[in-house]
Amino acid sequence: MAKKEKQEKPIKGPFKTSREKLRKIKSKNFLLAFLIDTVVIIVSALIISFVIKSFLIRSFYIPSGSMFDTLQINDRIIVNQLVPNIVPLERGDVVVFKDPGGWLGSTPEEPAGDVLSQIGGFISSVVGLTAPDNNQHLVKRVVGKGGDRVICCDLDNRITINGKAIIEPYLAKGSNPSNTEFDVIVPKDSFWVMGDNRGNSEDSRYHPDTPGRGFVSKSYVVGRAFVISWPFTNFTWLDNYPNVFKDVPAPKP
């Protein structure tokens, strides 16, 4: 005898009622069904984008020339937000961080605009097309991390880290490692950051009188920039130049 085919168990309860109602509505009105499906797709996409932006990656644009020639004005970069809380931040990384206090001065608030503009701005920020708080962040390169002694400069005009001189190929053409002398020891869970365009970058060197004394605490770091995403002609992965720092010894305890 032929085996009886297994029959699916009927769906009981409120889920069955809701599904049947939705099926009846769709069968009666194609346009309404199309609208319902479209809304579900849009809402799902917004939720996914919100989760990604909140916990994984974010987009920022470059407002100044402090990172020439690595980053150009109006370049858009993608930032890995798992750094540094899950993945450690290393020397050479291009880092995005919130103002530790006193670096940017006071920034005027932008007018709120009408309701439609606010809704459009919210949606575009959720999907990563805009970054409303972009002007509250900075982008620099990590040169020293917790415990490092960073000095400028040795007799050959090179920065030294824990006594080891480094040659920096990412510097803008014609830039010196620094026109300002300094000798600092980076506090634990903090970073010494500098722009690649050293002659036009108000970085750690110029903020000794701020609350953080020029250092950027880990708590202010948003993440590590790893790619230039726009304009497409500038698309490239951002290098952290491990060979520059590979021979730097560990800081003395």
Give the N-terminus to C-terminus distance in angstroms.
82 Å
Oligomer: single chain
Overall tally of structural domains: 2
Using the coordinates shown, work out and report the CATH topology of the largest domain. Umud Fragment, subunit A
Provide the fold topology.
Elements: H1 14-28, H2 30-55, E1 57-61, E2 76-80, E3 94-98, H3 115-126, E4 137-145, E5 149-152, E6 160-161, E7 164-165, E8 182-185, E9 190-194, E10 216-217, E11 221-230, E12 236-237, H4 242-245
Antiparallel strand pairs: 1-2, 2-11, 3-4, 3-11, 4-9, 5-6, 5-8, 6-7, 9-10, 11-12
Helix pairs in contact: 1-2
Description:
The structure is a single chain. By secondary structure, the protein is an alpha+beta fold. The protein has two domains: 15-52; 58-245, Umud Fragment, subunit A. It is 23% helix and 22% strand. Strands 1, 2, 3, 4, 9, 10, 11 and 12 form an eight-stranded antiparallel β-sheet that branches. It has a four-stranded antiparallel β-sheet with strand order 7-6-5-8, with no helix packed on it. A hairpin with a 2-residue loop joins strand 6 and strand 7. Helix 1 (14-28) crosses helix 2 (30-55).
